[in-house]
Write a structure and sequence with these properties.
Shape of chain A: globular
Structural class of chain A: alpha/beta
Strand content of chain A: 25-35%
Radius of gyration of chain A: 16 Å
Strand order of the largest sheet of chain A: 5-4-3-6-1-7-11-10
Number of domains of chain A: 1
Largest sheet of chain A: 8 strands, mixed
Distance between the termini of chain A: 28 Å
Helix content of chain A: 10-25%
Oligomer: homodimer
CATH architecture of chain A: 3-Layer(aba) Sandwich
Number of strands of chain A: 11
CATH class of chain A: Alpha Beta
CATH topology of chain A: Dihydrofolate Reductase, subunit A
Largest interface: A-B, 39 and 39 residues
Order of helices and strands of chain A: EEHEHEEHEHEEEEE
């Protein structure tokens, strides 16, 4: 019998108190004073076997010249393939479900869905996200790019843990109920 | 010398993980399973000297026939005056600043800005809100009415306290930094 369990998907993102992951123009300068390490980033990163991200995010990372994701397999969902920055990166032009199949073939147990909002939304809409880990930054932005693009998919969650940090960040970990 | 300190204003609201206070149609059925008492509502209510709300919220409350705000002075910001439901209610057709002046005259120390989003936004845009108390409900709505209507007013906050409840609610209290 074929093993049919897919990888579990984790969204890990910072957002403002009013639910934005970036300003309207995409800038995230308001995040710079927060130390990712304090928000459990290292521990989280160690817990994932691979990554999936959108082409826009990939390009931002590639353009920065810094690849901070080690050698973990990373699928970039894109409309076109191109030469990847690193060997562990694979461009993928198929549908999300096919990308999931690929990650299953690769036997990835836990995959980080790396923002932005577009890929969060694609995975959220298909109810593929198992864990939502959200670091709430103590700021009201007033406007910006929301965590999830408007859609009609409601997902009930259970709170796994909540931790308030000295910096004022509140790190909430939810799992699909 | 005239005393010029105004009342302090508190926003107290539940919202979804993705920052919505209601579904697109205004419904908040997803809140019904949460006991406000467990989210510190009683304590909070005791701490305020008065209320300010919008006409739409007032009408919803009045139509429900239940006034749960006791005899605390309540200003309803509205385009037109009408006979109020209760004696402690005063309709006010002036500008927000004039309403603030009135509350100062009444010597209200701490005033609850009762949602919805429209009045939150009016007070937020004028940087009048001192405390943001937000109960995050463990649900992703996908779409709905945001905490604050889109505006370009960014407000830095300090986390005063954060409490995770057994129900999965996370009650975060922020103060303007």
């Amino acid at each position: 019998m074929e093993e049919n369990t897919g990888p579990s998907f984790v969204m890990y993102s910072a957002c403002s108190v009013d639910g934005f992951i970036a300003r309207e123009d995409g800038s995230v300068g308001w995040l710079s004073e927060y130390d990712p390490a304090s928000a459990g980033y290292g521990e989280f990163f160690d817990s994932v076997d691979g990554l999936v991200m959108g082409a826009k995010t990939y390009e931002q990372v590639a353009n920065s010249g810094k690849w901070t994701y080690g050698n973990k397999p990373c699928i970039v969902l894109s409309n076109q393939t191109r030469k990847p920055f690193r060997q562990c990166v694979e461009f993928f032009t198929g549908r999300v479900e096919e990308a999931v199949d690929l990650m299953r073939e690769w036997k990835l147990g836990r995959v980080w869905v790396v923002g932005g909002a577009s890929i969060f939304t694609q995975f959220h809409k298909k109810r593929l996200i198992d864990d939502y880990i959200i670091a709430i930054v103590p700021i009201m932005l007033g406007s910006g790019i929301p965590l999830i693009q408007s859609c009609d998919v409601e997902v009930r969650l259970a709170l796994v843990s909540s931790r308030a940090l000295d910096s004022g960040l509140v790190l909430n970990h939810y799992r699909t109920a």
